[in-house]
Amino acid sequence: MVLLEKAELFERVRLAFQSSGWGLVFDSPVAEHPFRVTVFKESVSHSLIVYIWNLTHGGGEARPADEVRIQLTGVTPPLRIEAARLTLLLGWSEDIGVFAAFDARRHQVFSTHSPSIQIKRGNIEAAVRGGISFYPRGNAEMALALSPDMLPEYVSRQAAFHDYGDIPSEVELLGAAGAGEPVPAEVVAQLPPERRTTVTAVSRLARESTFRVRVLRAYKNSCAACGMQLGLVQAAHIVPVPVPGSSDETSNGLAFCPMHHLGYDAALLAVHPSYAVLVSRARLATLESNNLAGGVERFSAVAQTILLPDALSDRPRPEYLQRAMEIRGFEA
Prior knowledge:
The chain is α+β, with helices and mostly antiparallel strands. It has 2 domains: 208 residues, no CATH class; 95 residues, no CATH class. The protein has 11 helices and 13 strands. The strands form 4 sheets. It has a 7-stranded mixed β-sheet. β12 and β13 form a beta hairpin. α5 packs parallel to α7. The chain is globular. The N and C termini lie far apart (51 Å).
């Protein structure tokens, strides 16, 4: 079991936000735990207090084998909770690459003799495939396991997630949504409005998350056009979601760095059904005539053919690539 130092644990938090397009600034000394930061994306921002520990088994034979925990060591109660900030109470499994999130409000005061909070290992393993896994801890408390790309969404919906833990049938429905399973619309319609919104959002987010996780894993977190990694690579739909015939198959996805992702959507770049990477000389000529061609050398520094996933089933389907060129109006 790999255990990280506090600074390394926080880097996992930073990378989770960075990979999802969020910026982060420190509001207190970098090495101080809990970490006080603000995360932001476009016009949205959240001020956070971040507590984080390694997820471990611990506890010897007395502890169930299917259970992992965080231990609230190195801090004195109560946990800091402020009106102007959200407090995150997190665990991280370096071996699995998943966060656990607990309700700081319910653990603000804790015993220093046994400062541990548990979640099932099965929940952690379920979240590695993308999405969210929910674990009712009793007394209406809900713990969560999160794939890293879901951390920003967890921050945005923290209270709704943690408060969803008192009715078993509704918890089961939420769990199915978090796993990306089909959720009957007629069942969702019978939920109270706030919970209906939560289940619907979780269902959508889980589908998006599993798509991102599968695509980034298939392309080894590397840009298919230029090979960049740096934790900046994004999953792009070849045939966009709003277009009829789009799907969340891995074969309808490409991994791109932000520059080539934007270029792909703007028809500056395309991937031919033969997997050749094409740069639109016609579009570049138009940009040049408008004095907007700066950086063209860097943008055009792409491979002749895309990086291909190892699994044949994950590779882009030629008909999707052809359709993408048509609907984006790509001109060579």
